Amino acid sequence: MTSDAATATGTTRTTPQSEGAGPDQELPTHGLGASLPPADARAKTEGTFPYAADLWAEGLLWAALLRSPHPHARILSIDTSAAAAMPGVRAVVTHEDIPGDSAYGRRVVDRPVFAADLVRHHGEAIAAVAADHPDTARLAAAAITVEYEVLEPVTDPEKAFAAEPLHPDGNLIRHIPLRYGDPDTVGEVIVEGLYRIGRQDPAPIGAEAGLAVPRPDGGVELYTASTDPHTDRDLAAACFGLDQDRVKVVVTGVPGATGDREDPGFQIPLGLLALRTGCPVKLAATREESFLGHTHRHPTLLRYRHHADTEGRLVKVEAQILLDAGAYADASSESLAAAVAFACGPYVVPHAFIEGWAVRTNNPPSGHVRGEGAMQVCAAYEGQMDKLAAKLGMDPAELRLRNALSTGDLLPTGQTVTCPAPVAELLHAVRDFPLPTLPKDSPEDDWLLPGGPEGAGEPGAVRRGVGYALGMVHMLGAEGADEVSTATVRVHDGVATVICAAVETGQGFTTLARQIVQETLGIEEVHVAAVDTDQPPAGPATHGRHTWVSGGAVERAAKMVRTQLLQPLAHKFGMSTELLQIADGKITSYDGVLSTTVTEAMDGKELWATAQCRPHPTEPLDESGQGDAFVGLAFCAVRAVVDVDIELGSVRVVEMAVAQDVGRVLNPSQLAIRIEAGVTQGIGAALTENLRTARGLIRHPDLTGYALPTSLDAPDIRIVKLVEERDVVAPFGAKAASAVPVVTSPAAVAAAVRAATGRPVNRLPIRPQSAVATPKS
Fold first, then answer.
1. CA–CA separation, 641 vs 636, rounded Å?
2. What are the phi and psi torsion angles at 644 (to 5°)?
3. CA dihedral sign, ordered 675, 678, 680, 685
4. Is the dihedral of CA 673, 674, 679, 684 positive or negative?
5. Aldehyde oxidase/xanthine dehydrogenase a/b hammerhead domain: which residues (predicted)?
6. Residue 497, pLDDT score
7. DSSP letters along 10-64, please?
8. According to DSSP H, which parts of 313-373 are helical?
9. Sign of torsion, CA 175 180 185 186?
10. Distance between the two ends of the chain, CA-based, in angstroms?
11. 3-class secondary structure, 379
């Protein structure tokens, strides 16, 4: 699964070695550092958690969308009369019925709510229907007649440069030419490679669904599993032609998210239908609609040339990176910036020349998926490191150690790495961890074959490979993004309530907020309020920002309440609040003179405070790809052990050993789950997950044709070391946890398959023909 909330049951966890705690140190039972369980765990386990697909309202209507069967076509006419005349149909809307802006986009406003003149990708929305029964709605949508002039689709991103413009904004979304060092420098040893990364889908484990309810004031409320409710509200309001205060987004239970969880393309038609009919309208998307409608990871073409000296030290890296954005821009600019900035990986490279492009095609739209940009280049630069090691006759791990980045080094963007960067330490940890034992060559162990117990493989054809990879990601937004979050902490009758619009997507924010208040105020019972847009904005749930920015806002608000609580006591006893401490619900002074409980000190009062957290600013990359574009960085090392049937090309991942730079462990149990989930998602990208298209048409848009890793595919995941070197500019010193193992794991699996087969393995996911060993002459 790709959700953080549910890890593969086939994993075996190794207790991580953390620098912050010894093996005999007892972990706290509450507050920071405790393995506090999620507040919603029981409800999710019992099936009572309120997901959007479970919502209901009096007088409910059902919505259905009509989508294009073509990836590229001109719309000649749309006839909705047959659909509108069907019994039970209450409304049919097309592009002509949008009262406000006809297009939307979280980053670039370029995607139409409904296609008007042109269809630019398979599955693009044409119209929406509201009816009194879901089957009626679907039948009515199918009854809409659209006359198309089918056009030749542009599906090769390399041909998009010379193709006719697919969009009024053109085919080129962004070009970043990074220039760093001397272009005339040449290394004594040169290796080249061409790499292709497939289209991974975020595959949310719950149905994408929503409910729109009209309001008496002419506005509308949207109930949906949004991960960025304020942005979604603003986009919807613009399309509805309404002021923002007349549109409210209420976040329902989110069943895990590894990207933009709910595409506005589902929400905006719902609101239009609710406003048109005056009734609540619900949409529960099928899995096929999810594949057709939401965004995916950018398919990427990468060309690399690495220069090194004879000792294996990198001299120069040259690369060309081409992201296929699909029909619309979405997060392509940000993804390209990450890809270009991290194109050399966590290595010291004195000279780098990277060309990056993101282009529009008639392929399915690409957008935010965890580790965007960084994952694609990691697979490529680590493939280059393996090639370089082979050419030099060096151990792959030793080559990486000789070039490992550390604090104080420069990125190719010219930015100094000021945060902890224990890259070499992480690699040492996974390299030195004991390897798993080899399986016995006997019939009873046939389940260990890459094909499983029903596989056709022979034990004699199985080869074991070990591969290494180092990865890095940025935290928070980049290139001048204004990262800010607001939180309120309120305490009354011994109970604390946190109000913050940070959406819980499985990353553990609500648990962290409870731990922060417990730690700061010594109050055991802490509740986190449901999220809606009546609260101040907290921003999107991406790049670990809610741990940093929203968690920082909660901490500041809690500390302000702490001061309110302690000041009267300090004044009474003639001391400063700094001389008082709160622990286990008790307030004590440094000298023991004062000792009371938090409840007694509250004396029935209600205390509250609101605070903001805003990290230090960043700047856009300039015309040479230079600039301090990132707030912080996180690093990971992974060692993959795989068994490959070199005759059939089938691959079984035996073990993944992970060492990660986490800053500070805030919740050991949740951190381990996050890492395991990230590794499993990375294995999916390496071996099975690829949303295949043929001339722009999505083939098999379902979970039969799109193979997610299951518990049977999950290996033993050994978290061998967690480096707790706190980032001094981050609240609590913690770093983003789940994106960097997603980025690193596919490259490690590919490296291990290379080691087992001797094949270059330059494409993800790895195809069987790429894992068949070349016969020896």
1. 17
2. -125, 130
3. negative
4. positive
5. 46-152
6. 95
7. T--EEPP-BTTS-TTPPPPSSSTTS-PPPTTHHHHHHT-S-BGGG---TT-EEEE
8. 332-341
9. negative
10. 42
11. helix
Determine how many CB atoms are found less than 10 A away from the CB of residue 580. 21
Q: What pLDDT does residue 10 have?
A: 42
What pLDDT sits at residue 86? Answer: 97
Q: Which of 7, 23, 4 is nearest to 656 (CA)?
A: 7
Q: Do 609 and 602 meet the contact criterion of CB atoms below 8 Å apart? A: no
Question: What pLDDT, on the 0 to 100 scale, is given for residue 23?
Answer: 44
> Please, what's the b/e burial string for 695-719 (b: 16 or more CB within 10 A of its CB; e: otherwise)?
ebbbeebeeeebebbeeebbbbbbb
Q: Which residue's structure tokens are 């968690």?
A: 551
H or E stretch including 382? helix 374-392
Number of residues that make up the chain:
777
**Tens of pLDDT along 471-517?**
999 988 888 888 899 999 999 888 899 999 988 887 888 899 999 99
**Please, are residues 644 and 705 in contact by the beta-carbon 8 Å criterion?**
no
Residue 393: the pLDDT is 96
Tell me whether residue 14 is exposed, middle or buried, using C-beta atoms within 10 angstroms of its C-beta: 0 to 12, 13 to 18, 19 or more.
middle
The answer to whether the beta carbons of residues 488 and 500 sit under 8 Å apart is yes
Closest CA to 88 of 134, 57, 127: 134
Q: For residue 777, what pLDDT is reported?
A: 40
Q: Are 65 and 128 in contact (CB under 8 A)?
A: yes
Q: What is the pLDDT of residue 440?
A: 61
Which is nearest to 713 in space by CA: 755, 739, 679, 738?
679
Q: Where are the beta strands (DSSP E) in 537-606?
A: 580-583, 586-589, 595-597
pLDDT in tens, 22-36: 444 566 667 787 888
CA nearest neighbour of 738 among 639, 653, 660:
660
CA 43 – CA 40 distance, rounded (Å): 5
CA distances from 610 to 180, 208, 508, 544, 607 (A): 44, 33, 21, 22, 11
Residues 457-468: b if buried by 16+ CB within 10 A, e if exposed: bebebbbbbbbb
What's the rounded Cα separation, in Å, for the pair 268 and 247?
11
Cis peptide before 668 (omega within 30 of 0): no
Which position has the token pair 């990125």? 411
Say whether 96 sits in a helix, a strand or coil. Answer: helix
Which helix (DSSP H) or strand (DSSP E) does residue 555 occupy? helix 551-573
pLDDT of residue 439: 66
Half-sphere exposure of 403 (CA within 13 A, CB side): 30
Report the candidate in 684, 354, 298, 639 with the shortest Cα–Cα distance to residue 468: 639
Q: What per-residue confidence (pLDDT) applies to 754?
A: 96
Question: Considering only CA atoms, which of 225, 229, 279 is closest in space to residue 256?
Answer: 225
DSSP output for 731-766: GGG----SHHHHHHHHHHHHHHHHHHH-----EESP
CB 67: neighbour CB atoms within 10 A? 19
Q: Three-state SS for 236?
A: helix
Q: What is the pTM of this model?
A: 0.92
> CA-CA distance, 323 to 339, in Å (whole number)?
9
DSSP letters along 264-312, please?
Answer: HHHHHHHHHHHHHHSS-EEEE--HHHHHHHS-BPPPEEEEEEEEE-TTS
Place of tokens 């149905």: 207
Helices 374-392/396-403 angle, 10° precision:
110
Burial of 393 (0-12, 13-18, 19+ CB in 10 A): exposed
| Complete DSSP assignment for 657-699 | EEEEE-SS-S-HHHHHHHHHHHHHHHHHHHHT----EETTEES
Angle at 435 between CA 431 and CA 441, to 5 degrees: 150
Residues of the chain with pLDDT under 50: 1-13, 20-24, 777
Side-chain half-sphere CA neighbours of 58 within 13 A: 0
Beta bridge partners of 51: 253
CA–CA separation, 371 and 421 (whole Å): 18
